[in-house]
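For practice. Supply one:
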Amino acid sequence: MPSRRRSKVWLLIPFWLVQASAVYLLPALFVERDPTNILTNPADVVDTLAEPDYVLFALATLVGITLCQALIVLPVLPAKLDRHARPSWARCLIAGSALGLIGATLFYLVLAGGEAARLWRVPDVLANPIAPPFVSLAVTLSLIASAIIRRACARGIPIMLSLTMLALIAAMILTGAAFALAELFEQLTTFELPTAGWVTLTALAVLVPWTLGTLLIRAYLRRGAPTQTEEWALTRIARWLFWGSAIEIVAAIPLDVMVRRRTSCYCSEGTFWTLVLAATAGLAALGPMVFFLPLARRRQRAFQGLCPSCGYDRRSLAPDAPCPECGQSPLGSVGPSRSAL
């Protein structure tokens, strides 16, 4: 039976390969060098895919999205028989790497935003988010975060990390919506938002929804139905975020087409970043949504006293007894741990 459980994990590999292909191909398909063309020239797509900088950027984006997805999933991923045991170093390193990457990215955004607002000038060596200084910063922050999680989290990785990452995805979607509305206002009027205004809008659109979103998702999880496991609640939240990003992409495409016809540098316009943020948020939410759904069903069965594998009624068995129907071992503590929130 353990081999049966492991075989289900391998089903995630095709999803990751599809995700990697999307991260690598989609930007090259939609970033047109000639903004007057709606469809990208196939020759330009091939040239873009072969550029070393593009390959490196796509790889960094894929690693970032994968780590963020892992950070959402890890707090509710079963660990041996006890999901509340001290997390292994491998799990701590994955969670710490995601936090370190987020910290380094926020630091880069602060530097870039300050330079755009003409508050300071960033040296050329720091102008690239995948340059060695930022990689070193991300690695350092990752090791520090991993050590803190390993030392401080004696009963598993806290689910607050899942909530914080889901709130960040929501903040990305709302930031994209703010960019689209600001761009629409500029297109319909003669007003042009200065660079400092775009920087302020970005900061407010990220930080405020991120903070409020974390608190709201936490409250939603704590006040869930008594028979609802954490996985069901997180599955529903991830589904909302995915469809929200999809709706935003569909709504922003017509405006982006209009902007491309009026400017020669559409990559600096709000609609371009709306599509980038919405696509990134959608991919980041899709992974947990796909993973949580089968896990939520297994947890819900165990929470109701049934075997998580075959559905056999376990209520008359000892908590640590294997299932007499399929031989599956229990998952350990499966009830909601909202009190830890």
